[in-house]
Amino acid sequence: MKVQNLLENTKQQMRKGILELCIMSIISDEGEAYPSDIITRLQESQLIVVQGTMYPLLARLKSAGLLNYTWKESDAGPPRKYYALTDGGSEFLDGLMGTWGQLVKAVKHSTKNLKVNK
Prior knowledge:
The chain is of the alpha+beta class. About 65% of the residues lie in helices and about 15% in strands. The chain has a two-stranded antiparallel ribbon with strand order 1-2.
């Protein structure tokens, strides 16, 4: 049971580590995105995120100058906040993607001879 707990903890840490990359990629792909739509896309990719995680992260990225937002009227209630990348956010995302590519290459190289017991 201890191994299973360690595995779950490590999986959560790995997900946290790539969350900014995924969120910014979704926003870039959409041009602008509403937080619940970002959460839906992450859930579709089996990267489970709750609103309590999403909103502080978006606020931090905005404070860092990587995102901005606009208010848009909604048929379903009050106006909604839609996020978009700033020029700095696009540059940051490019850097993250480069780093991600290097990490994937390093992990593939390091694990190429690994045989998984299943």
